[in-house]
Amino acid sequence: MRRLPIGGAIAIVVISLAACSSPSPSAVDAQALQLDADYWQIDQIEKKFHESTTAKDIDEMMDLWAPDATLTVGSGETAVGIDEIRRFWLEKSTAFMPKTHWISDHPAYKLEITVNGDRGTLHFECHYVDYAKKTVVYTTSADIDVARIDGRWLITNMVGATTELKP
Pairing state of beta strands 65-73 and 152-161? Predict the structure, then answer.
């Protein structure tokens, strides 16, 4: 009589274990996929940043920023919020001035991205090349905080700095 309950219990354990070993993605796989997607989306910020300065496309540039973002440049001048940041790019940034004809080059091997949940960081360099003169005319770097806001990665804080050309 005891054989039936013990055999039944063993059958239940075996069926349960078999159900757990199905080929569906694990939570670890899903997390790895999400992390890869996050890295890719943050990398797109860097690409669109350089694309927008090269094309002088202010709308593309502003699409990268959170509404309450901050931008600090030079000797500590800080623009707060979308309107001030837009004004900085249009009125103070040499890259957006009509007289400059620059291509914003970015050495990919100097790109650094971190992700921690819905927050991350992005570091890159910009090498502005005057395409008529075929020379590097300006170099800068950016340390950026990013956040996932309403499903999109956006810049929340950027600090620009000078940099040296080196490998």
Answer: parallel
- What are the structure tokens assigned to 33, written together? 């996929």
Read off the CATH number of the domain in which 68 is found: 3.10.450.50
- Residue-wise pLDDT for 7-60, tens only, equals 555 555 545 555 555 455 687 788 889 999 999 999 999 999 999 999 999 999
Q: How many domains does the chain have?
A: 1
Q: Say how far apart CA 127 and CA 60 lie, in whole Å.
A: 19
DSSP letter at 63 equals: T
DSSP conformational letter for 24: S
In sequence order, what are the beta bridge partners of 103?
129
pTM of the model: 0.81
Q: What range defines the domain where residue 157 resides? A: 27-161
Domain assignment present for residue 10? The answer is no
Dig out the tokens for 5 from the structure.
Answer: 């309950």
Rg of the chain in Å (alpha carbons)? 25
Tokens of 70: 């901050």
Report how far residue 57's alpha carbon sits from residue 43's, in angstroms, rounded to the nearest whole number: 19
Q: What would the two tokens of residue 126 be?
A: 């910009």
